[in-house]
Design a protein that fits this description.
single chain, 323 residues, Sulfite Oxidase, Chain A, domain 2, 7-stranded mixed β-sheet, 5-stranded mixed β-sheet, 12 strands, 15% helix, disordered N terminus, binds the ligand Nc1nc2c(c(=O)[nH]1)N[C@H]1C(S)=C(S)[C@@H](COP(=O)(O)O)O[C@H]1N2, binds molybdenum atom
Length: 323
């Protein structure tokens, strides 16, 4: 991960309302563009980017609105920014690379292997993974370790509910996740920037916490490829790199899994990666952050503002070790 550079995209508008919750018809490939530009707050004056939208981007039906504890009323990051300023190293290391390379990824059909310390292991199609769960909205802050942040209305399902279906055994203490490996779909994998696949992990109690979700959409629509289609993790109290994209494998296990960033730079990126303004990254302070679209920096909140909800998970642990 690199040092902060100001976003290369002009990001001035602020979507102040949750305009996105309107149910939308399935957008046909051609009609999609026209329909998207009419959505208030999105794409105003940005038609050129809309043209790069994956053709599968379509509305999600029947989403339960987020209850108070799973939403922030802060201004939401415009969809335009959240879908063009990305970290997805498998699609390139510049923030603009993912949206440029996104069309190569084929998010359907898609399946996920669930294995390890579970009663019912197996490979499961995305539809079957999602089917028994109602889609829920969650409006979360997400803070990148590079000190920029966003507010995004996700659509997904609680990770804990999904894991429970596979009947974790009593030996399951951690969950390991892996991203797809396919250099044709993810051209960044032609270079050994990280030891692919991208790998992340959570402790079991973190994974079961209701704030942790598997997201399939944002802003009421199917996830754009550059944001991790068709299925990504969102863990809002941890630095963004924990929120692994385009997941193909979930393994429950007794031991703490190795993760890509802590393996490549253990001094800089730990396993827990809890947002903590008091613990500096070795190369920069984490005390403040720049919300995409804002000029003035704002203070970073302990556990990204979710301390009341998840603080108890880390009782008795040294916060200095929780980076
Ligand atoms: N597979 C994979 N997942 C990933 C990354 C990545 O490079 N590869 N980058 C992470 C980082 S550093 C951040 S900040 C978030 C960014 O998510 P966004 O682009 O949807 O905002 O994705 C995370 N998930
Ligand atoms: Mo990040």
């Amino acid at each position: 991960m690199r040092m902060f550079r100001p976003p290369s995209i002009p990001s001035s508008e602020i979507t102040s309302e949750t305009t996105w919750l309107r149910r939308r018809e399935l957008l046909a490939q051609g009609a999609g563009l026209a329909a998207l530009v009419t959505l208030p707050g999105c794409f105003a004056g940005q038609e050129s980017h809309a043209a790069t939208e994956p053709s599968t981007l379509r509305a999600l039906e029947g989403v339960t609105p987020a209850p108070r504890r799973f939403r922030t009323e802060e201004a939401q990051t415009p969809f335009e920014d959240a879908s063009t300023y990305n970290n997805f190293y498998e699609m390139g290391t510049d923030k603009g690379d993912p949206v440029r390379n996104a069309h190569r990824l084929r998010p359907e059909p898609w399946s996920v292997v669930v294995e390890g310390e579970v009663g019912k292991p197996g490979r499961i199609g995305l539809e079957d993974l999602l089917a028994p769960h109602a889609l829920e909205e969650r409006i979360y802050r997400l803070r990148c370790v590079e000190a920029w942040s966003m507010v995004i209305p996700w659509v997904g399902i609680p990770l804990g509910a999904v894991l429970a279906r596979f009947e974790p055994t009593s030996r399951a203490k951690f969950v390991a996740f892996e991203t797809l490996v396919d250099p044709e779909q993810l051209p960044g994998q032609k270079r050994q920037i990280l030891d692919w696949p991208y790998r992340e992990g959570l402790r079991m109690d973190e994974a079961m916490h209701p704030l942790a979700i598997l997201a399939v959409g944002m802003y009421g629509r199917v996830l754009p490829n550059q944001n991790g289609a068709p299925l990504r993790l969102v863990v809002p109290w941890k630095y963004g790199f924990k929120s692994i994209k385009s997941i193909v494998r979930i393994r429950l296990q007794a031991e703490r899994p190795e993760t890509s960033w802590s393996q490549s730079a253990p001094r800089e990126y730990g396993f827990f990666a809890n947002v903590n303004p008091e613990v500096s990254h070795p190369r920069w302070s984490q005390a403040r952050e720049r919300r995409i679209g804002e000029w003035r920096k704002r203070p970073t909140l302990m556990l990204n503002g979710y301390a009341e909800q998840v603080g108890h998970l880390y009782k008795g642990m040294d916060p200095k070790k929780l980076y």
